[in-house]
Amino acid sequence: MRDIQFYPVDRVAMDRFLELCKRQHYPARATVMRPGDSGQTLMYVIEGSVTVSTEGDDGRELILSYLNPGDFIGEMGLFMRPTHREVLVRT
Fold it and tell me: I want to staple 52 with a disulfide (CB 3.0 to 4.6 A). Which of 35, 62, 65, 88 is the partner?
């Protein structure tokens, strides 16, 4: 299931936003964020995909979401102000 976009994104504004960002490339199966990491980073998927997961009560990995180009990672930190990450994010 895809998230529904609630408002149109101005392509020029998004391009300007991305110009101000630091680009980081991650190889396949790399860990991008892990539980305990600082919660003050916002990322944007330009290409490829990432998996957001956590550990279930039984100790097994529980997939929470698959994110694709155009999706943000870490946006909850902007609103909830957590001091650390609670999920694992991998390419």
Answer: 65
